[in-house]
Write a structure and sequence with these properties.
Blueprint (H helix, E strand, L loop, with lengths): L6 H12 L5 H18 L9 H13 L10 H20 L29 H9 L5 H10 L3 H6 L5 E2 L4 E4 L1 E7 L2 E6 L7 E4 L2 H12 L17 H26 L22 H14 L4 H8 L4 H29 L7
Length: 342
C-alpha cells in the first residue's frame, strides 16, 4: 500500500483481514457494506477521499438503496458508516492518511431515515398458527409464544425444555458457516443463556410432542438431525403453502364452491398474507407489550444485548396502539354522537 492506493484495494485488504474467524452471515454483511462503498469511492485514491464524499454516500443511500429501490433504513446507514470508519482507521494505522474522513459522520444520517420495524402477524394469522397442522407448527408456536430466534429454535433440544417447571433454556444457536450448512455453537446472540417461561396451556401440548419425538432436537429434519438452511427454507415454504390452502378451502366451503385439490396443477390463489419466522418473534414482543410486561423484563425474555433495542420496539408499539385508541374514539363520536348539528 502507498499514496496511490485506491479505496477498492484498501477495502479488499481490510476485508480479507477482518473476515477471518467471523460467521458466514457477518462475513456476507461486511462484503455487502464494502460493495456499497466501492460503488461510490472504489476508484478514488484513499488520500483523495474527503468528508464530503462520505456525506454524498449517506445522502444517496438515504434517498434510494440501489438493491431495494427504497430509502435505506437508519440501521443500514449506521452499518455503512461504521464499516467506512473501520476501513479508514485501518488506513490511518498504516499511515496512508492522517485523518479519518468518516469520523463523526453518523450525525449526518438523516433523522427521518426509517427504522426497519418488523411487523407482528395479525390476529387471523395467529389463529392459523394454532389451527393448521404441519411439521413446522411446533417451530411457529415456540417462536410466537416464547420468542426464540430461528437459530435458537433450530438448535433447541428436548433436554432444554423443562416441562415440570415450564421453563425453556436458550443456551445455544445454529450458526451458518457456509451457504448451506448450520453448526450448533454455544451461547445466544448476546452470548448469554436466558430462561423463557412456557405458557401453562402449552405445557401439555409440548409434553405430547415430546412423548412421540424420535430425535433429541425439537425440530429436526426428516433424518432426525440438524436442518440445513435449504431444508429449513423449504419446510417454511411448505408451511406457508399449507396455511394458505387451509384458508382457501375454508373460503370455498363458505361460498359453497368447489376448491382445487391441494396439489392441483392449477395454481392455488393466495388468500392470506405470508409471514416469516422473525415476524413471530416480533409477535411475541407485541404480546408481551399488550399483556403489560415491563420493558426490562421483555428485554431479558427476548435476549436483547441492549435494552435500547427493546425500547425501540416498545416505542413503536406505543405509537401504534395509541393510534388504535384514537381511531376508536373517532369511530365513537362518528357513530354515537350527533355532531352534524353542532
Amino acid at each position: 500500500m502507498n499514496n496511490n492506493t485506491l479505496f477498492c484495494q484498501l477495502s479488499e485488504i481490510w476485508l480479507n483481514k477482518t473476515i477471518i474467524g467471523v460467521c458466514y452471515t457477518h462475513k456476507c454483511n461486511l462484503e455487502s457494506y464494502v460493495k456499497h462503498l466501492n460503488n461510490y469511492i472504489g476508484n478514488k485514491k484513499v488520500s483523495d477521499i474527503k468528508p464530503y464524499d462520505i456525506d454524498l454516500i449517506i445522502h444517496e443511500l438515504a434517498v434510494c438503496n440501489p438493491n431495494t429501490h427504497k430509502p435505506s433504513s437508519k440501521k443500514f446507514l449506521n452499518n455503512i458508516v461504521s464499516c467506512a470508519i473501520r476501513i479508514f482507521d485501518f488506513a490511518v494505522e498504516n499511515e496512508l492518511i492522517y485523518k479519518n474522513p468518516a469520523k463523526n459522520k453518523k450525525k449526518e444520517i438523516p433523522r427521518n431515515a426509517p427504522y426497519k420495524i418488523v411487523n407482528a402477524i395479525n390476529a387471523e394469522q395467529q389463529q392459523l398458527v394454532i389451527n393448521v397442522e404441519h411439521r413446522a407448527k411446533i417451530a411457529a408456536i415456540i417462536m410466537m409464544f416464547m420468542g426464540l430466534r430461528t437459530g435458537e429454535l433450530l438448535a433447541l433440544e428436548w433436554s432444554d425444555v423443562d416441562l415440570d417447571n415450564l421453563k425453556l433454556s436458550v443456551n445455544k444457536r445454529a450458526q451458518r458457516n457456509n451457504p448451506n450448512e448450520y453448526t450448533v455453537v454455544p451461547g445466544t446472540k448476546n452470548g448469554k443463556t436466558r430462561f423463557v417461561s412456557i405458557p401453562s396451556n402449552l405445557g401439555l401440548w409440548l409434553k405430547k410432542k415430546k412423548s412421540v419425538a424420535t430425535s433429541y432436537l425439537v425440530l429436526p429434519n426428516r433424518q432426525g438431525t440438524l436442518n440445513s438452511p435449504t431444508q429449513w427454507k423449504r419446510l417454511w415454504e411448505s408451511y406457508q403453502n399449507d396455511i394458505n390452502y387451509y384458508c382457501y378451502k375454508q373460503k370455498c366451503d363458505a361460498a359453497n364452491i368447489k376448491c382445487e385439490k391441494k396439489y392441483s396443477s392449477n395454481k392455488i390463489p393466495q388468500v392470506v398474507s405470508k409471514f416469516n419466522p422473525h415476524q413471530l418473534r416480533h409477535t411475541y414482543a407485541t404480546l408481551l407489550y399488550i399483556s403489560g410486561v415491563d420493558v426490562l423484563t421483555a428485554s431479558e425474555l427476548l435476549g436483547h444485548s441492549n435494552i435500547s433495542t427493546t425500547l425501540k420496539i416498545y416505542t413503536h408499539l406505543d405509537r401504534e396502539f395509541k393510534q388504535l385508541n384514537i381511531t376508536k374514539f373517532d369511530n365513537y363520536i362518528k357513530s354515537d354522537l350527533d355532531i352534524e348539528n353542532i
